[in-house]
Specification:
alpha/beta, 374 residues, 2 domains, 13 helices, Aspartate Aminotransferase, domain 1, Aspartate Aminotransferase, domain 2, three-stranded antiparallel β-sheet
């Protein structure tokens, strides 16, 4: 059977490649999947909805009760109502819906590098192209000069991730203002991926939800509630772009998961306490993995301010894909920095959404391998 060129030209995710190398006794610090239990209210709400027979098609944009509850919760970042919210089957599909709704063949998208692995392929799947803009060293802010130098007549979109996967960087107010000024001056849409907004350890999350005049924001529940398998996200956008997004979602999935929506709705009132505990757990793990990494000769990291990823640099004369493969042979799974773009080379990504015991064991392996290779 013939396979389309659009999908044949897109490589498999470097994250998944490393995941496939994991043996049953490997220490897997490769996937960003919280090991915490979800709020019991989420499970109870989903089970109750399913038991009541709420297993049919629902509204394409999501149930109104959840759209309104999400708007209420996130109005701390910007004024909105349920009409500004589209419930989606995952943050990843939310991004694809935005790209499919706003990118035409021949358009170009600027994506962060290092940045999450799906942005570029999504641009290509729409018939567009992408270029990578650099994040600054250390604090991983968008390099505004680099962005301005890469804007062309066909640039339609700039993707921003905060907190960042893979770096853990958190956007500053100054960076946000500069990006919004560019978007306004050049008539470019900012797509802000904010799915890790719940996990900021110093300072505060800087959201684009108060600048829906120039941006569309993606967020989700998978990481927030540790329900990655539920695949539930949402889009926050101005009403003038909401109708096309809802139309695209209909053609993608008809409607989002009905029982899961009620589970999320039931859990939202208790999320502040749940997340306070989760941040405490992840901050302890962040401090542990950062300390262990900086004790290893040849490796360096500034403790990340957000998300749950460590993105250290190393000084070996070896591509990150080779180093990650060598670590996998020694039963430590991580992701090579090159999987996140050309500016991710000479880095590795470790997820600390894993137990302290696994982090300690993983860092022992890293220390041994680095010592041998040096």
């Amino acid at each position: 059977m013939k396979i389309s060129k659009r999908i044949s030209d897109i490589p498999m995710s470097g994250i998944r490649k490393m995941f496939d190398l994991a043996g049953p006794d490997s220490i897997n610090l490769g996937l960003g999947e919280p090991d915490l239990n979800p709020p019991v209210e989420a499970i109870e709400g989903m089970n109750a909805a399913a038991s009541k027979g709420l297993n049919k098609y629902g509204p394409t944009a999501g149930i109104p009760e959840l759209r309104n509850a999400v708007a209420d919760r996130f109005s701390k970042y910007g004024e909105m109502t349920g009409d500004n919210i589209l419930i989606t089957p995952s943050g990843s599909s939310a991004l694809l819906e935005i790209f499919e709704s706003m990118v035409d063949p021949g358009d170009e998208v600027l994506i962060p590098s290092p940045g999450f692995v799906i942005y570029g392929p999504h641009a290509q799947l729409c018939g567009g192209s992408f270029d990578e803009y650099r994040l600054t060293d250390g604090d991983f802010q968008p390099d505004i000069d680099d962005i301005q130098s890469k804007i062309k007549s066909n640039t339609r979109m700039i993707v921003v991730t905060t907190p960042s996967n893979p770096t853990g960087g958190v956007l500053t107010e100054e960076s946000k203002k500069a990006l919004c000024d560019i978007a306004q001056d050049k008539d470019i849409t900012i797509v802000a991926d904010e799915v890790y907004d719940s996990f900021v350890y110093e300072g505060k999350h800087v959201s684009f939800m108060d600048r829906l005049d120039v941006s569309v924001v993606v967020n989700g529940f998978s990481k927030m509630m540790a329900v990655t398998g539920w695949r539930m996200g949402f889009i926050c956008a101005n009403r003038d772009v909401m109708d096309p997004l809802v139309k695209m979602q209909y053609h993608l999935c008809a409607s989002p998961n009905m029982p899961a929506q009620y589970g999320i709705l039931n859990a939202l009132p208790v999320m502040d306490g749940y997340l306070e505990n989760a941040r405490s757990v992840f901050k302890t793990r962040r401090d542990l993995i950062s300390r262990r990494i900086n004790e290893i000769p040849g490796m360096s990291i500034i403790p990340p301010r957000g998300a749950f990823y460590a993105f250290p640099s190393y000084d070996l004369n070896m591509p990150s894909s080779e180093l990650a493969t060598e670590l996998a042979k020694n039963k430590l799974i991580c992701t090579p920095g090159s999987a996140f773009g050309r500016y991710g080379e000479k880095h590795l990504r470790f997820s600390y959404a894993a137990s302290e015991e696994k982090i300690e064991t993983g860092m022992d392996i890293l220390e041994n391998v680095m010592g041998r290779l040096r």
